[in-house]
Amino acid sequence: MKNTLYFLAFITIFIVFKLWYSFAETADLWFLLKPVSILITLFTSFSTVYDPEAGFYYSDPDILIDKSCSGFNLALLAFLIFAYHLKPSKIRYFIPMILFSVIGAYIFSVFVNSSRILIDLRANLIFSDLPLRSQGWIHEGIGVMTSLTCLIILYWSLERLMYVINPQTSLLKRKHENPA
């Protein structure tokens, strides 16, 4: 029953934030966009201009980091992965696990999203001769592959960590006991 309430709480948090995101403007996602912009600027030396309605605009490569590039959906999925793996053994650890899941998902999404944008900038240089329509597909493909790969690595890493910490509750233990 305790795990059911725990998972219902996290799924409720997920749904509430997903609904919030559907009404959010670019300025509301500043907390994700700003650190990504800082990392992009550090790695590329491109200068940026912030417009609360549009996002962070880089004039040299002509890119805009806006709501759709914020990584919010990635952060929500990472939040669920952290929450799934960090089930508290006692109710009093519930709030710390929520906070740890939020902080972990935030840090994860900022670094993965920054990496995705840096990879996309490099791909734009490589594929600059392609028609704009093809570049759009490449842009989306890089986003999907980077995010999905990093989410899988996050899941696998947390599963391994939980196995090291407590082999009795890990899926890896159950898998090793009942090989199919």
Question: What are its keywords?
Answer:
mainly alpha, single chain, elongated, 3-stranded antiparallel sheet, 3 strands, 6 helices, 180 residues
Indicate the topology.
Layout: H1 2-23, H2 30-44, E1 48-51, E2 55-58, E3 63-65, H3 72-85, H4 94-126, H5 132-165, H6 171-177
Antiparallel strand pairs: 1-2, 2-3
Helix pairs in contact: 1-3, 2-4, 3-4, 3-5, 4-5
How does this model look, in words?
With 180 residues, the chain is mainly alpha-helical. It is built from six helices and three strands, in the order ααβββαααα. The protein has helices at 2-23, 30-44, 72-85, 94-126, 132-165, 171-177, and strands spanning 48-51, 55-58, 63-65. The two termini are 28 Å apart.
Radius of gyration: 19 Å
How many strand elements? Answer: 3
Query: How much beta, percentage-wise?
Result: 5-15%
Mean pLDDT across all amino acids: 85
Q: SSE order in H/E notation?
A: HHEEEHHHH
Distance between the termini: 28 Å
Structural class: mainly alpha
Count of discrete alpha- or pi-helical segments spanning 4 or more residues? 6
**Arrangement of strands in the largest sheet:** 1-2-3
Uncertain ranges = none
- The helicity comes to 55-70%
Q: How would you sum up the major sheet?
A: 3 strands, antiparallel
